[in-house]
């Protein structure tokens, strides 16, 4: 099934409005979810809608909340997200950090007690659009605990993504965004919904044995995702958990947590503080071009930079529609009906089918 992005965004916005989000927030959450699909990150797209509504029913996330600064000086601010939707609260906190970095050249902002922050590359993109470089470390306090540490066999870590953004002086920014696990949990959820097996080296079952079955992750007891790159990814996950959990104040991954709560530590930098802008623009372009000029290892291949795949995928999906498997669409449909969205509003999304 292919669905047009505008129609899908309208439906998602209608669902969030039905649980009490005001128009701005409903539109913001929907826009970021659909943008993730457009970028090719289906793991952080509309497949999350049923889970977000589940979090709302549990009281883990609340509509129309504002980020509250609990401590700050000229270059550092710590925020409480007050259980708000991550797409709304994340944007508020990034805007505050961007403003601080614009004044001081450098800023560090911590965020705790917030709902799922979505695709973390969005926050690096927000900073890059303001001409700032940024680094983002994210964790959960335990609900997302699904990753085995290197050498371990059960869940002790979350997927703990890291994002880095670099403006390129008039060119498209470079945006690196990756989970510290082999796959993001949402990609395993997408595989489960599609009914396809995972590749080797992704998942362990509850006995610590390798498996290709995505259902294993959601069993009771559940399996565990492996860290990317063995000890390297595991080490990054540990450090991301500490930076986002301890420095931002929400705590690190721990057992016995029923509510999802993200934490994030972001560092934002104004390049004009560090380098002449002529040098900055020239050197970033020179380096990027030099890297991409490497002869492809495969005939007809090419060297891509961070963010290239997402931009290409977005152009394709804006033209052709967003692919959704039948299970994901059915889950969204049932979620919409469960929050009393009118059948006509749901069916209107199908008008977005291309062709």
Topology:
Layout: E1 2-3, H1 5-18, H2 23-38, H3 49-58, E2 68-72, E3 76-80, H4 86-104, E4 106-114, H5 121-129, E5 133-140, E6 162-168, E7 171-178, H6 185-194, E8 203-204, E9 210-211, E10 224-225, H7 231-247, E11 262-269, H8 271-274, H9 277-292, H10 308-320, E12 322-323, H11 326-338, H12 343-348
Structure description:
With 355 residues, the protein is α+β, with helices and mostly antiparallel strands. It folds into two domains: 106 residues, Orthogonal Bundle (Hypothetical Oxidoreductase Yiak, Chain: A, domain 1); 182 residues, Malate/L-lactate/L-sulpholactate dehydrogenase, NADPH binding domain (Ribosomal Protein S8, Chain: A, domain 1, 2-Layer Sandwich), CATH 3.30.1370.60. 41% of the residues lie in helices and 17% in strands. Strands 2-3-4-11-5-6-7 form a seven-stranded mixed sheet. Strands 9-8-10 form a three-stranded antiparallel sheet, with no helix packed on it. A two-stranded antiparallel sheet has the order 1-12. The chain starts with a strand and ends in a 7-residue tail after the last helix.
């Amino acid at each position: 099934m292919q669905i047009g992005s505008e129609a899908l965004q309208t439906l998602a916005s209608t669902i969030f409005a039905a649980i009490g989000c005001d128009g701005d927030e409903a539109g913001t959450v929907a826009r970021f979810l659909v943008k993730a699909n457009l970028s090719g990150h289906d793991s952080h797209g509309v497949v999350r809608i049923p889970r977000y509504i589940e979090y709302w029913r549990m009281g883990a996330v609340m509509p129309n909340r504002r980020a509250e600064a609990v401590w700050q000086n000229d270059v550092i601010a710590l925020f409480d997200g007050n259980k708000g939707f991550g797409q709304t609260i994340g944007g508020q906190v990034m805007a505050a950090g961007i403003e601080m970095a614009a004044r001081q050249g450098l800023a560090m902002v911590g965020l705790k007690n917030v709902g799922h922050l979505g695709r973390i590359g969005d926050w690096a993109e927000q900073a890059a659009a303001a001409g700032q470089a940024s680094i983002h470390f994210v964790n959960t306090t335990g609900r997302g605990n699904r990753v085995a540490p290197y050498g371990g066999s059960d869940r002790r870590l979350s997927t703990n993504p890291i994002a880095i953004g670099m403006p390129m002086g008039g060119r498209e920014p470079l945006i690196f965004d990756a989970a510290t696990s082999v796959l993001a949990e949402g990609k395993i959820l997408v595989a489960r919904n599609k009914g396809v097996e995972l590749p080797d080296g992704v998942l362990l079952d509850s006995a610590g044995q390798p498996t290709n079955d995505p259902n294993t992750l959601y069993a009771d007891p559940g399996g565990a995702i492996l860290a990317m790159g063995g000890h390297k990814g595991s080490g990054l996950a540990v450090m991301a958990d500490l930076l986002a959990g301890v420095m931002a104040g929400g705590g690190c991954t721990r057992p016995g947590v029923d509510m999802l709560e993200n934490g994030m530590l972001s560092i934002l930098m104004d390049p004009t503080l560090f380098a002449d802008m002529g040098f900055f623009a020239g050197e970033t372009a020179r380096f990027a071009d030099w890297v991409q000029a490497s002869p492809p290892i495969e005939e007809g291949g090419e060297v891509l930079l961070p963010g290239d795949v997402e931009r290409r995928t977005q152009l394709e999906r804006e033209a052709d529609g967003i692919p959704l498997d039948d299970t994901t669409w059915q889950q969204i449909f049932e979620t919409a009906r469960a929050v009393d969205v009118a059948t006509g509003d749901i069916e209107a999304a199908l008008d977005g089918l291309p062709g």
